[in-house]
Specification:
membrane; transport; globular; mainly alpha; MFS_sugar_transport-like; cell membrane; two-stranded antiparallel sheet
């Protein structure tokens, strides 16, 4: 704590006007909370994009196209299994020893794992057919472990340093890391695809986005090492209220908000991973069997009978073009993440999110109309979906931490957020692809899946309490 004071930018005045408690400046809070989640989500999305574009061929070269894709998505899902573990580990240290050091550790874990993926031999290299996928699983687990601890810490960094009546506004800063990280990751992939031949990209180009993460991590570490602990956590120390086992205290005394938070976040996760991973897969898939056969012939790899039998049509939009469409959609994600903060302050988190969740239900019910044939309709669908994503994701950094007292806030919000990732995010792409297969090219069942997630979230919000007026700073169990 004393060492941290060397980096303070200002102090909080006591009632007598004396400066007693070092605090972080607004600019530092905004930048540190946003840069960390930007890096974390950049690393996460680099893998997500690679799992669609290159990993099926490089790590599962002997499988059919659909089985290779499902295998890549299965490894993608490993991170979501790891995230609750990360929530427990980093939550424990965040509630016991402070937010600052925990945030630095989570960032290092993600950065090292992502960098090593960029150095990993593939299954096409002699002797690595089994080991390469296994190591990919291990490193993907480490990515999930890091993200499991990152989000909650960044949310607390923003909200525990927010002025009164501005928690939802400040909470949108770490949430902006998601769209910004996504855009950076995909711009790099587009640049690599545009400047390299297909062979160069498959040989080494796909590694560049993973290796570049090291630069971002260095910037993030520099900023986070200059932070001081929040007033909320300092009061936990002063009152001697630090829990010996934060997870045990959370599950024993605060299991209801854990359950509520898990389902409050569910529709957000399902929506996002359908809008990103699934739509990229569906959007770039050939629109007809004839188109698929022609593309395979052009590449010198005619389709096998198994590939013909398992073929389902997509939109047939060129890969780079669809990535640009995704980026346009994600711009709306970022804009409406910012918009959501003031609206959640004005109307309250619960009421605002009930309205947005109802919108997600309608969007799912109308999914077939926007993601049927037609590029224009798909672009409208991406804009609407990502607009809803910004509106639902923005307030989460306020409402989930507000469900818990300060001495278990890191653990409680992290466990709820990441348990939701297991139920919502981990299976979303896999289930969506299976439903797309089941519908033989129709995505109506994918929309129904999204609508069901919205119903569950709506019920959780309806049964929960409004948290806007929580005494955040003095709320210690």
């Amino acid at each position: 704590m004393n060492e941290s004071c060397n980096y303070m930018s200002s102090t909080a005045p006591s009632k007598e006007g004396e400066s007693t408690q070092p605090v972080n400046s607004r600019g530092r809070v905004i930048f540190a909370s946003m840069i960390g989640t930007t890096i974390e989500f950049y690393d996460f999305y680099v893998y997500a994009t690679a799992s669609v574009l290159v990993f099926p061929k490089l790590f599962f070269p002997n499988a059919t196209d659909i089985n290779a894709l499902l295998s890549a998505f299965a490894i993608f899902g490993v991170a979501f299994v790891a995230r609750p573990v990360g929530a427990i580990v980093f939550g424990h240290f965040g509630d016991k020893f402070g937010r600052k050091g925990t945030l630095v550790a989570s960032l290092l874990t993600m950065g090292i794992a992502t960098f090593l993926i960029g150095l990993l031999p593939t299954a096409t290299v002699a002797g690595w057919a089994l080991l390469a996928p296994l190591l990919l699983v291990v490193l993907r687990f480490c990515q999930g472990l890091a993200l499991g601890g990152e989000w909650s810490g960044a949310a607390l960094l923003a909200t525990e340093n927010a002025p009164e009546g501005k928690r939802a506004v400040y909470g949108t800063f770490p949430q902006l890391g998601a769209p910004i990280g996504f855009i950076i990751a995909n711009l790099i992939f587009i640049w690599m695809r545009g400047t390299l031949t297909d062979q160069q990209f498959m040989d080494w180009g796909w590694r560049v986005p993973f290796l570049l993460s090291a630069v971002l991590v260095i910037v993030g570490l520099y900023v986070r090492l200059k932070l001081v602990e929040s007033v909320s956590f300092s009061k936990v120390i002063e009152q001697d209220k630090i829990q010996k086992l934060p997870l045990g205290a959370t599950l024993k005394n605060h299991w209801r908000p854990v359950v509520a938070g898990t389902f409050i976040m569910l529709a957000t996760y399902v929506l996002f991973y359908i809008m990103t991973s699934f739509t990229l897969t569906f959007g770039k898939a050939p629109a007809s069997l004839e188109a698929a056969k022609a593309a395979a012939e052009k590449a010198g790899k005619p389709m096998t009978q198994a590939q013909v039998d398992s073929f389902v049509p997509g939109l047939g939009i060129p890969e780079n073009q669809f990535l640009w469409m995704l980026i346009v959609g994600v711009v709306f994600f970022g804009i409406f993440t910012v918009v959501s903060g003031p609206l959640a302050e004005k109307w309250g988190r619960r009421k605002f999110l009930l309205g947005v969740t109802a919108g997600i239900f309608v969007f799912g019910a109308l999914w077939f109309a926007m993601f049927g044939p037609g590029q224009a309709a798909a672009m409208v669908g991406l804009i609407v979906g990502f607009t809803l994503m910004g509106l639902t994701f923005g307030p989460m950094a306020a409402i989930l931490p507000e469900l818990f007292p300060a001495n278990v806030r890191y653990t409680g919000s992290a466990v709820a957020y990441n348990l939701s990732s297991v139920l919502g995010a981990a299976p979303a792409s896999f289930i969506a692809i299976a439903l797309w297969q089941f519908g033989e090219g129709s995505t109506a069942w994918v929309g129904a899946y999204m609508a069901l997630a919205a119903v569950l979230t709506f019920i959780a919000l309806w049964l929960s309490r409004e948290t806007k007026n929580t005494d955040y700073e003095n709320n210690v169990a």
